[in-house]
Design brief:
homotetramer; mainly beta; OB fold (Dihydrolipoamide Acetyltransferase, E2P); 5-stranded mixed beta barrel; 1 helix; 7 strands; DNA-binding; DNA recombination (chains A, B, C, D)
Chain lengths: ~180, ~180, ~180, ~180
DNA sequence: TTTT
DNA sequence: TTTT
């Protein structure tokens, strides 16, 4: 059934790249999308929309976008639920990006050599937009994810998992492809 | 900034129509949107996306759609947060529908005389898509909401507020228009 | 760059299925999409939007949709140009559908056994939405297109090319995949 | 019925602002939207999509965007037809923008003081997206269109109609509001 | 008739 | 807490 979302906004923080147990890259980020009108108090508000991207695009986003970057997302809405630590079921709504467009100008952010290109995971894009996007991810334990060292990565944290103490609860069996 | 969502799915339950303290109609409903592919286990899953509509369209939706109805939504994603009873801040992501299209055939559901028309709130549509959609609504205490008695309403509960024991926590001061 | 279209409307005519020289199916159809408001004269107008679909979906559309069928399209806008018979360059804007959703009810149109399922061309959907959609197509000369005989096809013309006298001017070399 | 388009691209030329006989502003421009993949010959192609905006947004676009500017459009597809000089009926497909987002960085284009804000025509946006967008427009003969002299306008032609020799064939009777 |  |  039809499920389509298009957003343009700015990243509220640096994106977070992780890998599933099988080395599939997944990046999550939040887009702040300003509302076109001000509220009763005269302030412009924003919506903060959680997004995930998979595979090659995940690495592109992690490498080329950072807090404050302007980006466009074309994807689908996804809902899922999980049990939190108190045993409560938490419902989550987020956007699974099928493509992410970098909208920063070429000469932005000091000198990075990246432009306004779009990020696609592979020659046939949008394989399956319904990849699981569970809360916890496999911590990448040393295996080479196959993407390191792209230009632009240096302005991200060296270890994208440094702040990630979450338990392992995703395996590639969850991936529908 | 760009924030656009289009969905086609089926209502998981009868829509819920409420009124703000000032008599502004707001209807909430959840769309089940089937995913185009099956998961690892071979099952087709769905996303369950919460939607709200305001004003005239709210009444149309409440009058003409019910559990299982197929509908299209064109709107925007909205996030908000509230404190729950345990003092926890809960984040909510939902779709504010600017228009809702009824996709049931004319002769559907037995004998309702409604067709495949689209629901718009007013001649100039989509006034402000960022209307508040807080969790609790004013219980309508007897004032005429200005729309009752449209054909088709009979197949809905006579008192749309009967099951609504939520506290009053929205006033028209919150409405940005 | 972002290029996204979502439409719901009704086919103005039976869809036209053709095949490229290499046997790739392509179906074209026009969606009438009613405008939400009436014009100065009080009439509801419609937009008539040309759409194309490729491969498996092309065959599904040809098999299961016909004049008057309600359908949803998720795709991209595409422009192209060609020389007409007077040597004039004609510019064309159309929608390349990545997915087509059938919105007719199960029991519609007399008894056809088709439902409200979505049509996708292959397990990894939407390979390349920028397939050429030139005006003339290869007339299928006897090779098996690989899809005949699906249920529902009987209510379409036996020979989908019978009325097609257009010259051959597309080859698979034009296909970017 | 659902009819939604979202585009991000670059203006192929300076936008063209005109006025109807009643002084309603309308701006037309073409967006070049790059395709995400290269064609058979290895080149990246683009789609060239004609867009129109009305009223206040028309003036904003004319004042703040120019050839090469990056912009996002959220709107609807519209078709219309007209007789050309040879008496042939020409069919036109274009996008009626309900909102236009300026995606150029704040410090772009030398020194213009405009940022990445979105252009809306009025506090209640998107009154009627189905405004006529005929080929020829009334040449504004001296009446003040009510918007001149906004900052940024200096980098546009002083007389937006200088190159416009088209006959008058639109009147406000055509405007559905 | 096309943009970076 | 989920629809056909």
């Amino acid at each position: 059934m039809i499920n389509r979302v298009v957003l343009v906004g700015r990243l509220t923080k640096d994106p977070e790249l992780r890998y599933t147990a099988n080395g599939i890259a997944v990046t999550s980020f939040t887009l702040a999308v300003n509302r076109p009108f001000s509220n009763q108090q005269g302030n412009r508000e924003a919506d903060f929309i959680n997004c995930v991207v998979w595979r090659k695009q995940a690495e592109n986003v992690a490498n080329y976008l950072k807090k404050g970057s302007q980006a466009g997302v074309d994807g689908r809405m996804q809902t899922r639920s999980y049990e939190n630590q108190e045993g409560r079921r938490i419902f989550v709504t987020e956007v699974v990006a099928e493509s992410v467009q970098f909208l920063e100008p070429k000469n932005a952010s000091g000198g990075g050599g990246f432009g306004s290109q779009e990020s696609y995971g592979n020659p046939s894009p949008s394989p399956n937009p319904y990849e699981p996007a569970n809360d916890g991810f496999q911590r990448n334990q040393g295996q080479a994810p196959g993407s390191g060292g792209q230009k632009g990565q240096t302005d991200l944290s060296d270890d994208p998992f440094a702040s990630d103490g979450k338990p392992i609860d995703i395996s590639d069996d969850d991936l529908p492809f």
